[in-house]
Protein 1
Amino acid sequence: MATAHSLPVTAEPTTTGGARLLILLAAMPDEHLQEVYAQLGQVFSPSDVLIAAPETIAPSANGSLRVITAPQSRPSWVLTAADFANAHELAVAHSAEAVLLLGPEANTLQPSTLTALADAVLTAPNDLAVPGYDLSPRAGLVNSAILFPVTRALFATRPRYPLAVDMAFSARMAARMANAAQRFLRMNQGEAQLWPLNEAAVAGFTVTEVMAGPRKFAQPADPDLNKILPLLAGSLFADVEAKAAFWQRPRQAPPARAMQHQSQAADGASDTAAMMQAFRLAYTNLQEIWSLVLPPNALLGLKRLSLLEASDFRMPDNLWARIVYDFLLAWRLRTINRGHLLGALVPLYLAWVASHFHTTENGVTPEQHIEAVAAAFEAEKPYLVSRWRWPDRFNP
Amino acid sequence: MTALLATILQDQPLQNATSPYMTNATIWHHMSDALNQSFYRVVTLLIAILPGLLAFFVALVLFTLIGMVVSAILRRALTWLRFDDRIAKMRGDANWTPSSTPIAIVARVSFWANVLLGLIIGVSAFDTSYATAAVLPISLLPYLTRSVGAILLLIAGNIVARFLARSVLIGAVNAQLQYARFLALGVKWMVLVLTAAMVLEHLEIGGAVVELAFGILFGGIVLTLALAVGLGSRDLVSRSLESRVERVGEHTAESAPSPAPHAESIQHF
């Protein structure tokens, strides 16, 4: 059984009613909340932490935990702008040194992950600590295909899961995230996604990744890929566009990640057929739209891909990297309506997923392939920078 | 009698002798008169139209110049007020972001609003000058005056048709409908036919014939699409209904043990 983890002593004592660590919990069912309370009670000393939850339910496992009511935010499957704003507000009100934000289904996190996250920002000079989950080969595919490679290549950050689900951050990082969240809150868009890794990179803050075990991820209320993928990709593209002045400068690539997760290949044969069919249907129908976004070379690559047999269906990593970058450029240039643009990306993403499954069925572990994809994104970054600066230049 | 015949015989050669000269002179005279009158009419028409045309061009040029001045003033004033920064702060990273800066948009809108105003005033001036010129035919001007609205309708219709066609195409492809292109084409032509009917009605061309033709065409397209979608997605609908029935069955049979999941499903997020 885990024992209560006493947080390291600092020079300045916490103020009355305050806490060194503020733990903000996302909205979740009561039974999940009780499980999280039990885990927190096991690993943290009650005097060090203050828990804020949207609904105040007395913790049944450990009554000594201090729980306050957090402002209500709309339930979401990831952390939203409203969560970050609330975290900063509560951290300031209770003079917290750091904040631990836990997303939905946080009851499936290992207790050691909670302490590791807290220690990473309280004892080490880190401003942001994010978990490196042990993902199933069939989970988090949008993250593996787009979010992780783009974030790593452009912002030179290492963490494998840039989507905000769980994290710990310092007070100054909380202030920065709250500032970023305010732009959305002013427009009554509290459910908007923020990209903490990008914010930390731009601010020059220190980021670390804490190895976490497996975690069950909450799924969107309407898990329609055609809706969620454009939403996520659009949010990331907008953030990349807003931070263009930062990522265009050359940066040292992060060191290669150690392969902690050697998950087995996914058995996706039955699903890849449907994905390849979706891609081929799109290839026959969406050529007119893709030709507005993609250069002839990429279109040729897609033509070759559409002609491949199911067993040989592999999308080259550099082709995928260029496709994503071309869509990012089209987003910036508004070549076509942005809703249409991101809708046209969905079949290409499905083609990548099918290709990923085929690749991993032939001796390559999923993590190795995703690392290769990320490396391809890094290698193609000069192409993005060049076209970002001179979009009208001849591009074969 | 003899005297009468003698008179006739005497007069006839005289007439034959003088006729060519007299006829040529009369025709030339008549032609000259007709040409003069035609020329006079053309000049009169031109004179009647010219003030209207002049008024049209003066109004257009004047309002274009005013538009340029207003646009420049607005551009300077808004730059001084840091309008772009204020809008950026208010807007944040909203999904809809136009391709130009807010100042450029305001300046452009003000310029084109003035040009449009000049166009409308110019056409009205032309209309007024035309109405006073009674000699002009009354068949051309109504089309001219309504042509501005008709052109705007046509442009808007084309934009809407293209937007909707792309939306339907992408949505249908992502829903994996085999007839996606056909569906998009149908939607595009429905909007274009609707636009054409509106333009013709705006120009008051065709009257009831246009309405009738539009009704037949529109109805035909809708019927074709309905048949195509209905026949094409018959299997899809039946599968959907079957799965719904199965789900209802699962909900009602509460005591039945749930089958074990045989494979891990794909989680894209």
Protein 2
Amino acid sequence: MSRFQSIEFYQRPTTTYQLLPFRFTPLNERGEYVVTNLAGEHLVLPGDRLRALVRHELPHTSSEYLGLRARHFLCDDSSKSTPDLLALKIRSRYRRLAEFTGLHIFVVTLRCEHSCPYCQVSRQTGDTEAFDMSRTTADKALEFVFRSPSPAIKIEFQGGESLLNFSLIRYIVERAEAINHQAKRNLQFVIATNLAVVTEEMLAFCRDHRINLSTSLDGPEDLHNKNRPRPGKNSYQRALDGIERARRIVGRDSVSALMTTTAGSLDRVREIIDTYVGLGFTGMFLRPLSPYGFAVKTNAIAAYGADRWVKFYKEGLDYILSLNNAGIPFREFYTSVILKKMLTSDDPGFVDLMSPAGIAIKGIVYNYDGAVYASDESRMLAEMGDQTFRLGSLANDSYEDVFLSDALLNPLEESFAGSVPMCDECAFEPYCGAEPVFHHTVQGDFVGRKAESSFCRRSMAVFRHLIELLRSDPDAKRIFLRWANR
Amino acid sequence: MLQLAGEFTQLDGLAPSVQRQHFRISTNPALPKPLASEAAFLCRGAAVPSGFGLYLAHEGDQEVLEGAPTGSPKGVLPISAVYLCDGDILRVSSTAKSYRVVFRRGTRHQSILLTERCNHYCLMCSQPPRDEQDDWLIEETERLIPLLPLDTLELGFTGGEPTIYGERLVNLLRLTDRLLPYTSVHLLSNGRRFADRKFAEAYAAVQHHDLMVGIPVYSDDPGRHNYVVQAEGAFDETIAGILNLKLLRQRVEIRVVVHAQTIDRLPTLAEFIARNLLFVDHVALMGLEITGFTRGNLKKLWIDPYDYKQIMEEAVEILAAYRVPVKVYNHQLCVVTPQVREFCVQSISDWKNEYLPECTGCDLRAQCGGFFSSQVKYRHSDHITAQRLIPVPLAVETAP
């Protein structure tokens, strides 16, 4: 007789298994389901296997059983470490919540020399200084910034065209650095700018204070200039010049660009991506159009629905994957954010895909006039006349007034996806977000009817697409693993 | 393969009262007296100085011992010990007239066996456990540590399962930290003892300056892990041990021996590590050494590395993508995919590694770890081929 026991001896079940909390949602037309656990781990199961699982009939040596146990959907006598590991992962996932607000947006002016029809912040014409933030307001906002317990603080300057009030940016950066001498946070700055009015002096300041620049680039020249009219009709050329100068003066990685999707973009995703690749960017963000500001007034939002955008996104992602397979590393950032949520125990802290929502507790907006808003979208909504997410004013309210206001706590609590109808039983909940501002804007309710939500429709389509790619395309999986861990 | 232990062809003059004694080998006739009295002088013909604790010569050359002071202890080493050189340390047993090389100055890999007792009974154990009282092994080690040179780069403590000593192991680690402040220490353990929070805390309290514990996790399937180590409940305790160690900020390496019983779930194990144990400091994927229990279990364990190279690549790429530091050990460069080569380490101890005739002329040989002699002797891949970095023309025109 052998001194060694057989594998059957060690794999024998001693009791029946216990189910751990999980959710399931149909994945495709082939009757397969995606199941996710509390930590966001997922598996795809045929319907009959899923039914066997919940009836405690899954054979303990089947590959599904082994996979479900290893991913913490069930536990038995041989896996008593499961609850500890699961708890650890959930703790990791939510650990940033306690850090509180890391992103602080300063709207330093509403003035802008562009007149983009899709503008989401309702620009004002360039010479009205009434739309500039004052130093008193900026000082008050900085007090709020350093009240946040977050070890990492990012101050982002927004507009209008933020550089039209560069003297205030200079003032805020220098003040923040002086305060940080004592506060000792990981302090970063970003200027959102169209780069049309950027000067050498401004770039030298950015270089000396390690300030990053985030600009707008909508794709090929004709599309960009059509989307982004300005006197001289040269927005594209100005942006390109600005990117080039900023790279030379501030640094290669100091400039990033964001595209806005319009009806005119939908058939041109490859050209848009090629524009970014050609300019030496290492990735881009395929963004949906948000329903705020001028975008709603001009009905640009109605020009295409969620499904049309999903087609655009899939074509774009497909092309980007083919670039990677051809040896050109290039990332799609929206996909990367979702993949991080799917494939790691970390959370990327992406405001649109957070539950509890990221409003104010992840990122907050100090408007030029001293109003405090829960998010960038919230102030866009306010420019349209809806003050729902105005949390207070720097002139009259304390930090506590703002963060304990009903205007913040109500949407946070009501929209928490874990207890929202349909979200609470959706397998994609760990990847998705609460989005109270979006649902309030389009449905007049923090929660909204998810069955009619274009956010929900679009997000689920993206999640399903990525899960199918992960299991059917080994090359895509390899690329996705790297994106998830950037 | 170097023979690290052997018998003296002749040994006289050592006090029989001291059963085992350590001697540092010296070839330096100018060694000051206080050092010489604890050292063994390796005679090589020239004048033999006085004052050494032992005088040694190699077989066939023993007449050089005649120059040694009369009455001093003398030993004649077999030819197999010809590699010994200045700074090596011998453990000498006067009654059995035998020796063991316990420290080799010239190598990075200094591995010290602390016990042969173990609560695992792994299918592929290279050091089959014996349930015998062998505390003398750790006693000897406690005596050896003070003798080791300050510039020792690395020390490995292995078993058996060293944690069976409990507090005594902790004290040994503390001693090593204090006496060898520049030496990195690697401990091999199955990790189960660390599930005891008190023991883990005592271990952490050593605050060793450079200590890593290597702990095996063989599968994401607890049943399979327990089967490989032949111990029920092992998986859970090992995982709990790793969690305790990392909570206490101790450095942990996960070691996976890759064979027929672990290969199928290697990628899912990599995912399990990435999702649950991302905080470990290193993952080592190791090839099979054909020794100990492996030889008897070879039918159950053997799979040609060439046949699993794609699975190996998948697992390595998963871990690398998650930025888990991963290395591949004991795999020849011709049986891994080119993507895996940069993760391969020349790991096999210098007294164990060899090459095959097929390796002659291989362009990668200088970077390749080669084979365990046990692999050469009993089983190795059928696909060992010399690699050419520059493609060789298929047809060469010959002059008429």
